[in-house]
């Protein structure tokens, strides 16, 4: 019962956020013939995406003004909900809601199997997102930065955390969640960005190909992001903004609707303010604008729309460090928070994790071999895929950085599967694939309704393991996290003993559960390289120079090297220990 209430509570919180963002987005996105062919689902998802963008932009200004408080975030939510109610009333008058519901019901009854499969994936993805924060990057810096902003009510620069000068647009949503005291909600916010992209991908796929390809593309994309949807990372937010941004820019220019070009620029600006990797897409965007735009005044409007949500991070960095993309490009702008060794270490780490996208996405190559058969819109998407893949290959080669291209790759992979099946049936001289399997299925009522138990069977298979990760109370949360976070129990001890100020070595992945201001990381001022080579007396003095009085070390990463020194016990006293970590006070 407790878990059910926990699930309902967080679902309600997410619903309030999505309704509010829909209301905000509806003010910006007006129905227009230039995107009507993409379907109701795409328009709804575009409004949600734009609403999230507006929400983030306002949060950014609130943070700059040091007013990222409970009252201001609550007011923003209420404003969005008021706009949603206004939009709802207008749609009721126009009878668009009734017609949309009828169209949705028709699609579900016409395509029960694909609908149930997509629904299964969505439900499982959302439930998996309800686990406590335990993924590496979210615990190391995403949530710690958000916590500092929530506590301070301002966009503080937290130098003891990794990447203090990164652009953090999407993380502002996590800060808003922590203002209310919910640290599982960021998982749902990140997952919701993926689900909004899925809805938009379905609309795009249906307009370019057909329902079956669109549904398959949605399933493929969900399967490729399933792991990320359980985290408070930013890749799904970045993907959402780039996906809708480039579609709006393209559709706006090729259908003569400058308003949608502006919306697209705003969304791409949000992406650039979310992660540095999105800067690689700027040449492609610039090429489109230069090719199509001829009016000088339009360039000014496009520049404002683009810079509004992202310029703060880069201007701040340039003023404070002399480098707009700190800590990158140190050889050009000079090193500030990092040094040359840190940069080399980061590059080496990228090479270590270099990999390829999931095998199913390689099927996207099939349609690319037959591009001449497709529409101009499809060719434009193919060009985006090729551009994104090439820049990714020659920069990071880390699959997580290719995720913004995954929606389009999923669409082409789905079309590739469809084409392959169609060719198989032609070669075996079978009747048309669609007529055999789809029309027969949709006309047979027994088969149609027999598809619905598929969702029940799938949920029964995956539900126990998924529900086991949901921790609805403090005791079960602690039991879950003690196996995920190496220093979790020491973190609990430290919350009860705030007199200890930490330097940690080898436990940067635990920082969200350690006291604020805990120093120590692979990079930056408190880099491990500067600590591990010191004698016990030098280490004690170094810790004191940071204003700290305690040392937390990992038993797995460098701990023995430190504690095995002959004079270690002369300068340090054991305070607390677990199987994975040890806490020492400095004498």
UniProtKB/TrEMBL annotation:
Keyword tags: Cell membrane, Glycosyltransferase, Membrane, Transferase, Transmembrane, Transmembrane helix
Transmembrane segments: 6-29, 41-64, 70-88, 109-131, 188-205, 236-254, 260-291, 298-315, 356-374, 381-399, 405-426, 447-463
Gene Ontology MF terms in the entry: pentosyltransferase activity
CC annotations in GO: plasma membrane
Alphabetized Pfam families for the sequence: PMT_2
Keyword NAD: no
InterPro entries, sorted: LipidA_mod_glycosyltrf_83 (IPR050297), RgtA/B/C-like (IPR038731)
Protein name stated in the entry: Dolichyl-phosphate-mannose-protein mannosyltransferase
């Amino acid at each position: 019962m407790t878990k059910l209430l926990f699930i309902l509570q967080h679902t309600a919180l997410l619903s309030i956020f999505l309704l509010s963002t829909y209301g905000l987005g509806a003010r910006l996105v007006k129905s227009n013939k230039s995107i009507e062919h993409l379907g109701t689902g795409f328009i709804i998802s575009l409004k949600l995406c734009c609403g999230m963008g507006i929400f983030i932009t306002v949060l950014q200004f609130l943070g700059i003004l040091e007013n990222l408080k409970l009252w201001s975030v609550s007011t923003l939510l209420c404003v969005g909900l008021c706009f949603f109610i206004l939009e709802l009333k207008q749609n009721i008058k126009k009878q668009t809601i009734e017609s949309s519901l009828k169209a949705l019901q028709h699609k579900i009854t016409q395509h029960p199997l694909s609908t149930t499969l997509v629904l299964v994936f969505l439900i499982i993805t959302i439930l998996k997102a309800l686990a406590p924060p335990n993924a590496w990057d979210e615990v190391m810096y995403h949530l710690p930065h958000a916590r500092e902003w929530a506590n301070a009510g301002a966009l503080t620069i937290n130098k003891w955390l990794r990447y203090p000068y990164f652009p953090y647009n999407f993380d502002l949503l996590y800060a808003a969640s922590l203002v209310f005291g919910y640290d599982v909600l960021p998982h749902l916010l990140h997952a919701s960005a993926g689900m909004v992209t899925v809805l938009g991908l379905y609309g795009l796929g249906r307009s370019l190909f057909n329902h079956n390809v669109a549904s398959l593309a949605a399933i493929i994309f969900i399967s490729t992001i399933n792991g990320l949807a359980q985290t408070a990372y930013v890749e799904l937010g970045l993907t959402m903004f780039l996906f809708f941004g480039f579609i709006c820019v393209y559709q706006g220019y090729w259908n003569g609707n400058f308003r949608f070009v502006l919306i697209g620029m705003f969304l791409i600006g949000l992406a650039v303010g979310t992660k540095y990797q999105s800067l690689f897409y700027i040449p492609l965007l610039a090429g489109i604008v230069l090719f199509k735009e001829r009016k000088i005044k339009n360039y000014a409007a496009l520049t404002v729309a683009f810079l509004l949500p992202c310029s703060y991070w880069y201007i701040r960095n340039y003023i404070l460090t002399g480098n707009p993309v700190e800590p990158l490009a140190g050889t050009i702008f000079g090193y500030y928070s990092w040094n040359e060794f840190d940069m080399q270490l980061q590059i080496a780490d990228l090479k270590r994790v270099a990999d390829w996208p999931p095998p199913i996405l390689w099927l996207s190559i099939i349609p690319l071999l037959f591009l001449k058969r497709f529409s101009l819109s499809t060719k434009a998407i193919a060009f985006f895929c090729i551009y994104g893949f090439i820049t990714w290959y020659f920069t990071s080669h880390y699959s997580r950085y290719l995720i913004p291209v995954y929606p389009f790759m999923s669409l082409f992979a789905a079309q590739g599967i469809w084409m392959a099946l169609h060719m198989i049936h032609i070669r075996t001289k079978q009747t048309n694939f669609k007529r055999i399997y789809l029309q027969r299925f949709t006309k047979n009522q027994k088969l149609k309704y027999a598809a619905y138990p598929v969702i029940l069977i799938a949920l029964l298979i995956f539900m126990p393991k998924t529900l086991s990760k949901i921790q609805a109370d403090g005791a079960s949360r602690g039991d879950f996290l003690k196996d995920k976070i190496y220093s979790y129990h020491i973190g609990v001890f430290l919350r009860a003993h705030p007199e200890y100020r930490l330097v940690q070595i080898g436990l940067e992945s635990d920082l969200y559960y350690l006291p604020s201001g805990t120093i120590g990381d692979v990079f930056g001022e408190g880099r491990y390289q500067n600590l591990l080579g010191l004698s016990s007396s030098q280490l004690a003095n170094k810790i004191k120079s940071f204003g700290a009085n305690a040392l937390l070390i990992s038993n797995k990463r460098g701990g023995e090297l430190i504690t095995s020194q002959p004079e270690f016990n002369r300068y340090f006293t054991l305070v607390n220990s677990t199987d994975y970590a040890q806490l020492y006070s400095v004498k």
